[in-house]
Amino acid sequence: MKRPLGRSGIEISALGAGCWAIGGPYGDTENQYGWGGSRDDDESIRALHRARDLGITFFDTASSYGAGHSETLIGSAFHGVRDQVVIATKWGYTFDEERRLAIGDDDSLEYIRTCLEGSLRRLRTDYVDLYQLHLGDLPVPRALEMIAVLDDLVIEGKIRSYGWSTDDAVRAAAFAEAGAGCTAIQHDLSVLSGSAEVLAVCEKFNQASINRGPLAMGLLSGKYHDGRQVPGDDVRSQALPWMRYFRDGAGAPEWLAAIDAIREVLTSGGRTLAQGALAWLWARSPATVPIPGFRTVEQVEENAAAMSFGPLTAADMAQIDKITTTVTAAG
What we know:
Layout: E1 2-4, E2 11-13, E3 16-18, H1 41-53, E4 58-60, H2 69-78, E5 86-91, E6 93-96, E7 101-105, H3 109-123, E8 130-133, H4 140-145, H5 147-156, E9 162-165, H6 169-178, E10 182-188, H7 196-204, E11 208-212, E12 246-247, E13 250-251, H8 253-266, H9 273-284, E14 288-290, H10 297-309, H11 314-330
Parallel strand pairs: 3-4, 4-5, 5-8, 8-9, 9-10, 10-11, 11-14
Antiparallel strand pairs: 1-2, 6-7, 12-13
Helix pairs in contact: 1-2, 1-10, 2-3, 6-7, 8-11, 9-10
C-alpha cells in the first residue's frame, strides 16, 4: 500500500513507523516524556530494518525523542540505504543530549536551523524529507513567520518539505495555506478519538494526515485489558493534561470499555485488534498515514501485516459509527 506525502510529490508507504518509543526515557525534574522500561537498542535497529524489509518506507521521529536517541538509532539503521526511506523529524523542544534531559522549548527562527543541524548529524544524512514544527499550540502569527526560513531550507536542499504537528484545525489550515512547501499535518487520530476538523483541513489543502497515536498509545494493542501497568519512567505513567488513555499507569477503564464495544468489528476478517485499528484509519480518508510506535521486531511485523488486509469495508465503518454513537449517547 502506498500513499502520497501530501502535495510534495514524495510517495510513501500507507503505514509509517512512529519512532518515539525507541528513543527511550527522557524528562525533566518533574515528568517523564519518553517510553520507559528496559531498552534494547540492538532490537530497535533490527525492528527498523525489518520495517523496511516489509515495505514500510516512512519513519517519523523528533529531535527531542530520547533527547536525540531516536534519531541516532535511525541514523545507524539506515546509513548506506538513505535513499530507500523517507524520514520525518520535528523541531521545537530543547534538551541536553548527554544527560537525556528535557529543558523546554524554543520558537525562535534561529532554532529552526540549529535544531536541524543536530538532527542531520544524528540521522547521518544531509537532508530531511519532512521537517515538522513540534509546538502544537504556537500562535499562528509566530508559526507563519517561520515559513520563510523553511522555504529557504527547501531551496538549500536541507529539507524536502515541511509541516506542523498540531491538533488545532485553525492552526493547521493557516500553515497549510500559507506555506507552499507545507505538505503534512501530524495530529492525534484513532478509532477512539481525534479531530475530524483537522482531517478535513488535510483533505482540503492536499496535506498528508500523519496520524499520531493511531493505537491510542498502545491501548489498542489489547494487552492492557489485564490491568498491567507501564513502568514509572514511562510517559504513560505521568499525570499530564493530555494523557487520556492511561490513569495511574494502567489503561483507563472507560477507554478499555470503548475498545471492547468495537472489538468484534475491528478483528473481523482475521485481523488483530491493532490491525483493525489501522484499517479503520485507512478507510477513514485517502490522506491518512498512521504511524504506530514499536520497540520490537514482533510489533513491527504485526503492524506491517495490516497492509495486507487493507482498509475496513464501508459496512464495517458504518457499524463502528453506529456502535460508537450509541455508546456516546449512553454515556
